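Hi everyone, sorry if this is the wrong subforum. Our group has a chain we'd like a structural model of before ordering constructs, and none of us has done structure prediction before. Sequence below.
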Amino acid sequence: MRMVDALWQRIEDLVASQKKQGVVIGIVGNKVQVNVDNTLLTLPRYKHYTPALADIVDIDASRRGAWIVIGTPA
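Answer:
Right subforum, don't worry. Here is the predicted structure as tokens:
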């Protein structure tokens, strides 16, 4: 593999790792319980987004320890 190809692949992998998807399994106040890769997480959500049970949601995972549910994909 050429060095440039390897570099682009690494960049694509890093970008992909900053976004996750999960399934809403519960709502607790202003937080959302989400199943992400078979792990239950309780995460904050953006104010403009009101989740529903079983929604598939996008999660911004770009900041360690500060993941947030950003909404449902179109």
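For your construct planning: The CA atoms of residues 20 and 27 lie 18 Å apart. The longest strand covers residues 19-28.
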